Amino acid sequence: MAEQAIGGYSREQVAYMLFERIAVAEGFGALGHTTIKPTREWILTTYAECLSTVISPSVKWKS
């Protein structure tokens, strides 16, 4: 299956942009520009959720 671009960006790029916005909304600031650091688990889980959402937007995540 050919990878679909979204507005000229790859799915991974869109997922990362979403991830960055969530990080800011969660109080982590622009990653690397705050004293509050997300955990490795939070980073990996959140990015995985973002990528899954971009690939299949109908998936609903539980918080």
In short:
It contains two helices and no strands. The protein has 63 residues and is mainly alpha-helical.
3D structure, described in words:
The model has no long low-confidence stretch (mean pLDDT 84). By secondary structure, this protein is mainly alpha-helical. The chain has one domain. It has helices spanning 11-25, 40-55. It has two helices and no strands. The protein is 49% helix and 0% strand.
Large-scale geometry = globular
Helix/strand order: HH
Structural domain count: 1
Q: Biggest sheet, open or closed, and with what strands and sense?
A: none
How many helices in DSSP terms?
Answer: 2
Mean pLDDT level? 84
Amount of helix: 40-55%
Q: Structural class, from helix and strand content?
A: mainly alpha
Number of strand segments: 0
Which value, in Å, is the CA radius of gyration?
13 Å
- Identify low-pLDDT runs: none
How big a fraction of the residues is strand? Answer: under 5%
How far from one another are the termini?
A: 31 Å
What's the structural blueprint in terms of helices and strands?
Blueprint: H1 11-25, H2 40-55
Helix pairs in contact: 1-2
Label this structure with key terms.
single chain; 63 residues
